[in-house]
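job 3f2a | input accepted
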Amino acid sequence: MTLNSATSAGVSSAAVPLVFDTVGQSFAVPGGTHEVLHEVTFTAEPGEIISVIGSSGCGKSTLLRAAAGLNRITAGTVRIGEKAVTGLDPRVAIGFQEPRLLPWRTVADNVALGLPQGTKKSEGAASVARLLDLVGLSEYADHRPKEISGGMAQRVSLARALARTPGVLLLDEPFGALDALTRINMQDLLLDVHRQDPTTILLVTHDVEEALYLSNRVIVLGKDTPEAPATIQRIVTVDCAHPRDRADAEITALRSELLAELGVEEIAV
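job 3f2a | predicted structure (269 res):
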């Protein structure tokens, strides 16, 4: 496996592996149980970016929630480093599709919410300043969320997630609500941030092109039949080094393959 240029240059000391070992997830339903995930096994290596794609309802977000400790899995093990996930882990940070900023707090104060408990005031202020500079929002530190754009709010959300220097960063459709141009800019920002501090990232996305542009590997979740639980159908390694060309022939070919696997027929132009 070839990791991207950020990882090969040096993995963050905070980055840890994220391990799924024959993970299954079932939920109680009237008359029995409904199995959502079945024997999901893979490892995100320290500093690696892995995307999970699949049709709606195939268990992508359930998988992410299991890694976050928000779901109690019913089979197998999820590990952060050497420790099994049994609840919320301070080494894990989560970013969602919506920024979820507190409207009465400033941009800087929203970022500060992600700092570990017990952080000294001076150290916290320095960390927040560094993160705002990292995401290009230093001059907006005293603004309220209503005074910035949606793309800027998502950058605040990313900075807040990074404030605890996470070993694992979980992202659930983080750019899905953004317009196309802002989404592209946010993808490039994520890679820039990762290049400087390459934590382990697990990204859930519906966008095949986004997955291929960002990730070292892409995991395809799917069902053999509509009634069956989701399993890993395929794991694709993307060997192109960052920065990547979105029009690269290898990425374009993989995009066509994955879309076909997901049952999406491309329209010739």
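job 3f2a | DSSP finds eight helices and ten strands in the chain.
job 3f2a | closed
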